[in-house]
Amino acid sequence: MTKYTVKKYDQDDYKIWNEFITQTKNATFLFHRDFMEYHKDRFEDFSLLVFEDQKLISVLPANILGDFIYSHQGLTYGGLVYKEQTKLTQVIQIFQVVLLFLNENKFEKLHYKALPSIYHIKPAEEILYSLFLTDAKLVRRDSLSVIDLSQENVTSKIRKRGYQKAISNQLEIREETDFESFWNEVLIPNLDKKHQAKPVHSVEEINYLKSHFPKNIHQFNVYHYDKIVAGTTVFETETVAHCQYISKSENQENLGSLDYLYHYLIQERFTKKKFFDFGISNENQGKNLNEGLSYWKESFGASTIIHDYYEVETSNYNKLNGIFV
To answer: CA neighbours within 13 Å on the CB side: how many for 37?
Structure first.
């Protein structure tokens, strides 16, 4: 353990952090500091950097809330990030020094949000084995609806009928840099009406993120005679096209707008990606499933990938002593 050192992130680490993220096998653009810090007023950052003989070998995006530490609550996914050449034994040792550091800083538990396997550039589940060794407790499990784009996928008849209806209705799909029309005319009214909620990102925030990550964030709108009737916001990583927001106008009859849009995204626009991720259909910390929403995603050919959340007692760093034989 003595060859590893841990430090809390500060602004002087901005460049080395971002350079490291581009070299890892289990990071996406969400871990870039420009993404992490768009909402820094909402989260008290406590991200960590791990060095081996003064060389950066791992980072952990994290924040604190009260007396608790989380792998970052402002990100869809998270966890310990490391390079392809980092071996399993090293990941275990890195995790041990992270837990020790947190324990010495009076954090009793680490709330750990894993990175779903579809976002791995190469297999990167060393940390899951490390969590097992430290008796981490599974506290939440979400189900992602995912299409493996390398396989042949069957679309249901009802989705095909919707697609044909959209063609007869002469719908038009546009990829745009403007988010205002979708946010203000479709997304915000729908979320307010259905859930009395607002989008996670304000339109100002999504514009900011788009300006910093133009190749990763995309807006697709569907128009019926130049009137917006539906849209989706897609976050694109090296392996995945992920639907961050999906919404259609409640005031319109069923024009087949989303069937038309998702046929295009899956069959044409993102066909070279490994996976198409519709995201979760869960509520109540994974305890409930929106049956209708899950069915809708599966009718495009999606099936389930799991996204896990853990709690691990930082004092369990000592459980990693003496495990190598």
So the answer is: 12
